[in-house]
What we know:
This protein has 456 residues and is mainly α. It has helices at 2-5, 9-19, 26-45, 50-55, 70-89, 94-106, 121-130, 141-147, 158-179, 191-201, 216-231, 241-246, 249-254, 263-268, 273-286, 296-299, 309-318, 328-339, 344-354, 364-380, 388-399, 409-414, 418-426, 428-435, 437-455, and strands at residues 118-119, 156-157, 188-190, 238-240. α5 packs antiparallel against α9 (158-179), α11 (216-231) packs across α15 and α11 crosses α18. It starts with a helix and ends with a helix.
Amino acid sequence: MENEKMPHWTEVLKRRVEKTRDERSEEEKKAEETELFTKYYTEWKGGGDKEASYKNIPRFYYRLPAEDEILLQKLREESRAVFLQRKSRELLDNEELQNLWFLLDKHQVPPVTGEEAMISYEAFLQVGEKAGPKCKIFFTARVYAKLLHNDPYGRISIMQFFNYVMRKVWLHQTRIGLSLYDVAGQGYLRESDLENYILELIPTLPQLDGLEKSFYSFYVCTAVRKFFFFLDPLRTGKIKIQDILACSFLDDLLELRDEELSKESQESNWFSAPSALRVYGQYLNLDKDHNGMLSKEELSRYGTATLTSVFLDRVFQECLTYDGEMDYKTYLDFVLALENRKEPSALQYIFKLLDMENRGYLNVFSLNYFFRAIQEQMKLHGQEPVSFQDVKDEIYDMVKPKDPFKITLQDLVSCCQGDTVVSILIDLNGFWTYENREVLVANDNVSSNTGDLDDT
């Protein structure tokens, strides 16, 4: 039927060519033929309206305003703020959470397992219908299956489900809160952004009430360095908000909301006031000339004062210094690396110092170079130096590198004994602890046995 209504494109083409004046050049004739062919072929394929197809493609790129486009920047900031406020209103507030708990408790299904109230899938769906539209995303089969364990009646714990909801709400609230400080609006925080976030967070943390305002800047610096040391290994100067939410650091920081936090928990929490004051106090004690900076000689008294001079030389060669002296921020990276030697980021920091020629691996020469300083310290303390060959063999036995002649950073991380290896090479006290590990274990066992006898 279509062929009867409209002549074939070849016929139309022939007619047009016949009507064409003979004086036209061959090039002009070919150009017209190509144009007609393209037109009719496109119509035949159903793509006559090019603009219509383009309209179906969603826009996926939006140019960021330039620095001089102040109005556009302000407009973008305001629109982001409105968007985040709308997202915040979509979250459950305290009253709605209380209502959810009341509904869950009302629909619990007996018998009680231990002390936990349980709920069946049918009752779970009933609560979902009554809880309101904000709760809809939590009342799914997927969530129920995640929380389903070994209950013989196929129920889940009401407390576990409520904690799940609370955790999700908290994550979204925190995400929105962090995004308000994301000046670039690209999903990451720069150092100054995170500093502003923590500075404004301090008044909301009861455990930091005793901090003097003059110490705030040092506290913020101490807190921010932990985030950047572990979450920005490439030193880009920015951290993804998703990475901040995924790690435990924010939990540790917000733990300071607990007014009855135990002394042990405070001492083990890097963000607590006692911990921050301890680190800053150590820095002031090392700074003998009170110029606010640390020289190599001053840093040599760090900890047990048993770090080798060769290792300290490498610290001052590789790390940022000012006229050969270290500031507080650089000192914080140094402390975080030495206090967390099991962590990959700390091993990366120390490995860079041990890899003198920047080859990406340690060889026998590197190990010998650093261990000679340990041997010299042993002589100074009146001890008989241990043979390097013995230590070298023990190191290779611990690490088991893929290449028998090269130890890479990945080898150190994978062997799970990288902290012991670096301690042997940079710290006499660390080497002594390793060398006398059997004696120390025996003494610990004796002490624990004695304690048991005392108890009886």
